[in-house]
């Protein structure tokens, strides 16, 4: 028990010593100078020189911070035509402690100032959690605790912030003069999460739930309520990326993205089974037509040879030479025709196989065109081809 009492005494002594160091008592010269400045301020008030009175009271309070000089400054500021600033100074005077003999004077001035302010202003008071949060207002700067201010009648936009809490914006409508209270409770930051996106290529646009966030190689969202969000990454000449992510309280969800280059129309066409199928069928068809022309030419030459045999009247040597030429043409045209026909049928069969494979793939069935079994064989009248899958 003795040790506890001794600890308490030591703590009290330490507090008093720190307080004394932080706020040393005014010297005799300060007291004398402050009194002189207050006298000058009172004289200036009598002459209605409010600027001089305000400056003198401010200087006196800086020398000796007490109720007397702060309260005098509040009155001078009110006479100068700045009722809101007068209210603030009056609140500061109250923090020094209102002497009993000044209570009536203080209350009367407060009531007078309040009545004047209510004609054109509204008094807003925030009950904020945490209590040390900062409140910012566009036209009235920063509010320190306690969070109460006089503002012009209309609409106030207040930004409430505190370390380790989610900041929030408060819209407050106050068209008429009155005292209004509002409670604002900030949500701890550890109740929210973030999404961090990294990857390549640089410059790719990042969107979270269709809202632009930034660009690769790295971007991070603001604090988000837990839940599911859709991350999209896009860039010209690359395939778009989309993923749904789960944001958890107090955690950062990492997403790594590497976009793939998009194929050009030509590249897609070259890789298409349909393209090669129709190409092969077309070439095969052209080869078949060519074979028909060559075989027709061979048939015509054959008719000429037969006519020559039946009608020739020239010498044997001339006949033989002309007949041999016709036989050579017949052989060349027939060989070319049958070869073209075989190639044409083979190509047409391969092209058909590719088109069938492409059609089955589009129907979500797996077919390997390379697995087709193509056979070409001779026939008494030409060449045949068979395709098996």
Mind explaining what this structure looks like?
- With 389 residues, the protein is an alpha+beta fold.
- It has four domains: 21-119, Tetratricopeptide repeat domain (Serine Threonine Protein Phosphatase 5, Tetratricopeptide repeat, Alpha Horseshoe); 120-187, Sandwich (Immunoglobulin-like), CATH 2.60.40.1120; 192-261, Carboxypeptidase-like, regulatory domain (Immunoglobulin-like); 267-388, no CATH class.
- Helices cover 48% and strands 25% of the residues.
- It has helices at residues 2-22, 28-46, 50-63, 67-79, 83-95, 103-118, 265-270, 273-311, 316-362; strands at 121-129, 134-137, 141-143, 148-152, 154-161, 168-174, 179-185, 194-200, 205-208, 211-215, 218-220, 227-234, 241-247, 252-258, 373-379, 382-388.
- The strands form five sheets. Strands 3-2-5-6 form a four-stranded antiparallel beta sheet, with no helix packed on it.
- A hairpin with a 6-residue loop joins strand 12 and strand 13.
- Helix 3 (50-63) runs antiparallel to helix 4 (67-79) and helix 4 (67-79) runs antiparallel to helix 5 (83-95).
- The radius of gyration is 50 Å and the shape is rod-shaped.
- 19% of the residues are buried.
- Residues 1-21 and 365-372 have low confidence and may be disordered.
